[in-house]
Specification:
single chain, alpha/beta, Rossmann fold, eight-stranded mixed sheet, three-stranded mixed sheet, 4 helices, 11 strands, globular
C-alpha cells in the first residue's frame, strides 16, 4: 500500500523538532495541503525538508506551496530569517508576501514552461485559487537559479508553479488542483503525484 503523509492545519503534523530523518514517519509521499497558518510551522517545514532531501515525492498546494518556498529559502538559499507574512507581517525578510492581485475564489489562466513535467506537455491551463500569499518577486531570480524553477505563470507573469530540478517529484502550485479532481477524472497534477508515490514501492 502506498503511504502518503498529509501535512496541514487539520491533520497531525510531523514532529515540530526533529534531529534525524529516522524520527520522521516512513511514507512514500508527502502532500502539504492548504489551511495555513499550520498548528506547527516547524513541523511542516521539517516534513518538506525531509521530502526534498530524501527524494520523497512531495506536493504543496496553496498554503503548502508557500511553505515549500519558505523551507527552500531557509535551508537551501541560506536565508535563515526568511519569513511568511501570514505568520509575521512585520518580519524584516519576507519571502512569502501578500499577492498584488486578488485571486482567492477565482479560476485563472496558467502558462506552463514546455519543459514542465506536469499536464503531459500542455502549456495552457485554467486553475482555481483559494490563497492570498505567494512568492515575494524580489527573490524570484534567486529561487529559479537555485533549481526550484518557476515553471508556471499567470497572465501577468507572476509565479504560480514551481518544480525542483533533479528530484523525483517536488512540485508546488499556488492553485488548488484537488478542487478540480474527481474519481472518474483525476486532475493531472494529482495523477502525476500519486504515480510518483506509487513508483517508490515499484
Amino acid at each position: 500500500m502506498t503511504m502518503i503523509a498529509i501535512v496541514g492545519e487539520r491533520v497531525p503534523d510531523f514532529p515540530p523538532h526533529v534531529a534525524t530523518d529516522e524520527e520522521l514517519p516512513a511514507v512514500d509521499a508527502i502532500w502539504c495541503a492548504p489551511g495555513s497558518p499550520y498548528r506547527s510551522l516547524d513541523g511542516a517545514l521539517a516534513a518538506l525538508r525531509h521530502g526534498r532531501d530524501q527524494g520523497v515525492p512531495t506536493l504543496g498546494t496553496c498554503g503548502g506551496c508557500q511553505h515549500m518556498l519558505l523551507e527552500f529559502a531557509r535551508n537551501v538559499l541560506g536565508i535563515a530569517d526568511a519569513q511568511h507574512a501570514e505568520y509575521d507581517p512585520y518580519a524584516s525578510r519576507l519571502f512569502v508576501t501578500p499577492l498584488t492581485c486578488e485571486v482567492a475564489g477565482r479560476t485563472m489562466h496558467v502558462t506552463l514552461d514546455p519543459a514542465s513535467r506536469l499536464y503531459g506537455g500542455a502549456t495552457d491551463v485554467q486553475e482555481q485559487y483559494y490563497c492570498n500569499f505567494g512568492l515575494n518577486p524580489e527573490y524570484r531570480a534567486q529561487l529559479d537559479s537555485a533549481g526550484f524553477r518557476i515553471t508556471g505563470v499567470d497572465a501577468d507573469g507572476d509565479a504560480r508553479v514551481f518544480e525542483l530540478d533533479d528530484h523525483p517529484f517536488y512540485v508546488a502550485t499556488l492553485f488548488v488542483p484537488q478542487m478540480r479532481s474527481e474519481p472518474a477524472h483525476p486532475h493531472p497534477v494529482v495523477t502525476e503525484f500519486v504515480a510518483a508515490a506509487a513508483a517508490v514501492r515499484a
